[in-house]
Amino acid sequence: MIDPPKVSVIVPTYNRANRLKEALNSIVCQTYKNFELIVVDDGSTDNTSKVIRSFSGAQYLALTKNSGVSKARNLGLASAKGKFICFLDSDDLWDVNKLKIQVDWMENNTNSQACYTDEIWIRNGVRVNPMIKHLKHTGDIFRYCLALCIVSPSSVMLRANLFDEIGNFDESLPVCEDYDLWLRIGAKYAFHFIEKPLIIKHGGHADQLSRKYWGMDRFRVTALKKILDQNSLDNDQLLLTRATLIDKCSVLIKGFAKRGKTKEEFFYRELIDKYS
User: Fold this and answer.
1) What secondary structure letter does DSSP report for 91?
2) What value does the mean pLDDT take over residues 176-182?
3) What residue spans define the domains of the chain?
4) What proportion of the chain, given as a percentage, has pLDDT over 70?
5) Angle subtended at Cα 162 by Cα 156 and Cα 164, rounded to the nearest 5 degrees
6) Residue 87 CB coordination number (10 Å)
């Protein structure tokens, strides 16, 4: 009987054939080799399938239509056999030692459920420094995850059984699905931060989801409302989450009022009333 792989690496992709090969190469070139590679084609219309099939060791899963990154990642999770789960967005790259360093940490710290790494940011081909608001933290990071997403999916390693407890990516969210998941995990478990830049994040290109959807805080408010309604937060978390939701709603109200969007303005005013 063949032992299952230690790590499952899940790569969701949509119409990024021009970037996908380099991303997959950064996985197959890892110094740590006990992993399975699962690539999920989210209904691409370019030659993505040809690129995936050129990697003989990759498990190729395909959605018949573009359904969003959450559904793609969840399909990969359903096929994953590893003890640990990693993700790589198809416009990002891994350092060759990324898996080895994270597996070593997780194996030596058996109570740890999650770890993530530092990042190198490339915007339009130029290396840039992250802003202060993107500063990484270790341990209890819940409060730092409320304002915005500070954990990149490409940088994280999670224990597979964590998804049985926390749940998968929320397929109703077209964006900020990672923000939502980190809040749910961070409310219960610590994230260990590995202070080494083990991924390269590429940004500035036209197909980034963050450029496709305006008003990202609309989706963050949805995630905040959801976790509040679950009644699973301790008192400190509850107060911080309520305050963040109210702050984000207040900003959205100003934007909608300026544009004469009275229906949307009323919706967020009602949320403030409910959670004040």
Assistant:
1) T
2) 97
3) 7-212, 217-275
4) 96
5) 135
6) 24
